[in-house]
Write a structure and sequence with these properties.
Blueprint: H1 6-12, H2 18-25, E1 35-39, H3 47-51, E2 56-61, H4 64-77, E3 82-86, H5 89-95, E4 102-108, H6 116-126, E5 127-138, H7 149-160, H8 171-175, H9 179-186, E6 193-206, H10 207-215, H11 220-224, H12 228-242, E7 247-260
Parallel strand pairs: 1-2, 1-4, 2-3, 4-5
Antiparallel strand pairs: 5-7, 6-7
Helix pairs in contact: 1-10, 5-6, 7-12
Length: 261
Amino acid sequence: MYKNAASFYASSRPPYPPEIFKLIIEQIPEQPRDLYVDLGCGTGELLLPLSAYFKKSVGVDPEKAMLSEVNKKIKKNTHKNISLFNGTAEEYLTSLSDTTEISLVTAGRSFHWMNQELVTKAVFHHLIKGGAFVTLGEAEGGLWKRKSQWAQIMHDIIFKEFPHKEQFVPPLKRLNISVEATRNMLQKFSFTKIEDFMLEAEQQWTIETIINLFYSAADFLDWLGSDKEEFEKKARKALLAINSSGIFYETSKFGITCCVK
């Protein structure tokens, strides 16, 4: 799903603001911080910064191409305490011994892909007392629900300018994500605290990073196929028409849910 998009994902997805890492770490006790697990780690945007606080960290992702991008960063930054698991969150959690204890589990821009109740049950079992399960993502729905003018223009190009193709259907649209259903599910477990946070960060975009952002979307490059050059041509022309500088700004909102055991 992300095999051809991993390099674009690594270079173009909006970075998490530093305040997020501080907020997450503040949710758990200072000791012990033995094991941290990032489910659906992607290209390591959460995994690498948070690994600095733990004796051992594990990044879990079903896409080898994503883990390859993480490995590049690990080698570049000489991280020594990170291991990677190529598989789903469900597969990783099933592989653990019953006595494995985890201080922190995160799922950034990824919990919607999982069997949420099964994963939460396993995470709750393995969390230490005071440990936290943190899910987070862009609060406005990410790529396909952005409200900025440049995003709307890109959506128009994708959904209206290629009538010879079957219309692209974002995978997340097929998942029928429900925030209310997720919250109801989390409340089935005996977390001592479930708390929501919202953080904002200013993001600058260029025409190239906007195009690459869409290339990072699941299944999009496969759908685009041989029309990639035509898509880029249409995108550049339309974006320059609304801003000749080719520079765009946006306030990204990140929603965080912290569940403390």
